[in-house]
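Z., the sequence and structure:
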Amino acid sequence: MRPWEADAALALAPVERRVVCVPVKAFDRRSVRTVLYALRISASRCCAVHVSRDPRATHALAMAWMEVDPPVPLVVVDDLGGLVPSIASALVPELDQGADEIVVVMSRLVERRCWTGQLPDRHTERMARQLSSLPGVRVLLLSVSVGDRRKP
């Protein structure tokens, strides 16, 4: 599905019962682009979710997040034995509070090589498949090129 097709499909669901979630690992260009895209989706709420595996990395992310103060709250969840179960633990309360649809916006790295074209980020695609199998969850994948020097 192309990005404009995804936007058209999302426009069909009621906005007041949709929540947008962005998994973030670090405060970098990739996460900023993904959050900016997520803010374009009509929803009642948008949040970023970080799975805490390393207290120092989590602290660094939280400090950077507070310094920039984006319009998206950062939700930190404990590692429950994997990224997908941990992210799912943050999504379940949203469904319990009446959300009909949770849109998870993820970015995947695409490495460009002249002899092969594009090599997809298999880890992100596997996570997207697992998250989209959850009831009420839809996943949008954004492609970000490795070495892309453009500003967010």
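The first helix runs from residue 3 to 10. Residues 22-145 form one domain.

Let me know what you think.
H.
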